[in-house]
Amino acid sequence: MSKLKTRFLDKEFKNPIVLASGILGLTAASMNNAVNNGCGGVTVKSVSKDARPGHPNPTMTGTDHYFINAVGLSNPSVAEGIKEFAKFKEMTNAPLVGSIFAGTPDEFAEVTEIICQSPIDFLEVNVSCPNVSKEFGTPFAYDTKAVEVITKKVKEKSTVPVIIKLTPQAWNVAEIAKVAEDAGADAICAGNTISGMAIDIRARKPVLHNKQGGVSGPALFPVALKAVYDIYKTVKIPIIGTGGITTGEDAIAMVMAGASLLGVGSAVYYRGQDVFEKINNEMTEFMKKENINSLEEIRGIAHK
Amino acid sequence: MENNNPQFIPISKIVEEAQDIKTFYFEHSLNSKPGQFIMLWVPEHDQKPFSIAYDDGKSFGLTFFKRGPTTTKLFDMKVGERVGIEGPFGTSFSRKPDTHYIMVAGGYGAAPLGFLAESLLSPPAGGGDARRAEGVGVDFCVGARNKDLVLFKNRIEKIPNTKLHIATDDGSEGHKGYITDILSNLIDSAEKKVLVVTCGPELMEKKILNICNEKNTDCEISIERYMKCGVGICGQCAVDPIGICMCKEGPVVKRELANKITEFGKYHRDKSGKIIYF
Ligand SMILES: Cc1cc2nc3c(=O)[nH]c(=O)nc-3n(C[C@H](O)[C@H](O)[C@H](O)COP(=O)(O)OP(=O)(O)OC[C@H]3O[C@@H](n4cnc5c(N)ncnc54)[C@H](O)[C@@H]3O)c2cc1C
Ligand SMILES: Cc1cc2nc3c(=O)[nH]c(=O)nc-3n(C[C@H](O)[C@H](O)[C@H](O)COP(=O)(O)O)c2cc1C
User: Fold this and answer.
1) What is the pTM of this model?
2) Does a structural domain hold residue B124?
């Protein structure tokens, strides 16, 4: 697996696959299983200042082509969450990405201070959840000014490198990434789900209780790939490519577009809990065939 | 890939089992195994997990206790109205020949265990495997607060090779006290290899696990945790310290696995993920 070793900011990852936020990321033990199933690192389910029950069910559903969810950012609060993060670090030394969201820039700063009391290695800032707009309005990730202010506020308080998680649904995602970089972000995650809907034609109603949901899984892949490609051209900081990665081939394409780490979530639905191992094996296999010795060799190569 | 197998089907029959307990039947071939569950969707309300109470291969039934908003809504529904059904999901109780089953049910736990007893001893009720299991006998133990809440008495009495034992908190029927009080004796007096299976309140199940550990008796337990997706993605029903999802590697777990789940009988997590002690 040594071909897959990846340096991301100040940390060494045994491979570039990170568990994406919100999938199997509630408890330390469940994230540790993801590591045992091949993840190079993990991202926790996003936490907020106060506990949130999230939306009523159905909160997610899947088809052959896409997965869609509107969990509604349920979480036990940052204060409860950090207990799990500490437990995770007792189980493994795999890199741990904290994830936060908030309703205002000041609250982002407040949550940052609390989460930084836990042994996270990076802090991902979720400004791009599409499923809570009834409560919080349009995601911050559409707005250059909001991204700038939040990035600065979080950077001021954070004791670890800061990753800003954007949405490929913003037509100017590359420009927004540049704003985040200029405001001090250490990396970009591209990105979150994009807004969508599923309708049960027999019930004649949207499937998700929230009606609208975030589309992930295979259908999201080309969208996320293009976002990473565009961002890579615009910024110098590293990128976590996330969205629809399901196979080793997807993963390699994402690296060729310019990603350093690869977020994987919905693929668990398509290929099981050991999907991380499967993707790693498929990447290694491809690299052998194509005489590629390291991911460094092909990173961003699609731009040449 | 997971197949959620979503259906939107009418309720074909409703039976009132007792105060605040109803069974809904559906004419749909679910092909489930005893111990598995479905996700039931009431549009505009919620979607929740329920164990399968009956399955004869052609139709299936679900038994509800009225508890909160969703089950209250279900109690208002009428024959012909449609609900969403996804599944079956999760693990099931073992089907073993030449075994003496001791089934211990509390609350709606009598529903999946009734299905198990029927699938072993009175096909085609019990669906799936349409043959009777060889050499199987059952002690079916039901605990309830009082005699009016004892579920499925008539149903269980009809199953061959099955002896019903009842315990009520107030002594209005059967043994006065906990159903777990009589478990040790039943295990000791069995003439065959014993398999204890249980579904009910967690603290009752924990007592049963302890007894089975002391006596080194095989046992299978249905462990319920807050479930959202039902397919092992969201991680809401992951248990400590091994982190497996109860919707996927449960709800039915064997004794060895139950012993590894140290939160069992101690705490669970609510909808937000916060730890709640029993
Ligand atoms: C595998 C499994 C099998 C079940 N089988 C049955 C059954 O056969 N009959 C039956 O009446 N009930 C069963 N339940 C419990 C059932 O899910 C709850 O009764 C139902 O969700 C209550 O919803 P409510 O809106 O009426 O009440 P609420 O007020 O929302 O909840 C009441 C209580 O039900 C439990 N609960 C609520 N939502 C969930 C959830 N999503 N997952 C797990 N537990 C929840 C919690 O303990 C909660 O305190 C089962 C649960 C699980 C996990
Ligand atoms: C069920 C579910 C819950 C999610 N919860 C979060 C979350 O809490 N925070 C966040 O930043 N992203 C969340 N996401 C988005 C994922 O982290 C990821 O960006 C997206 O699903 C695209 O990747 P994928 O196609 O590999 O799943 C969630 C996604 C899913 C499917």
Assistant:
1) 0.96
2) yes
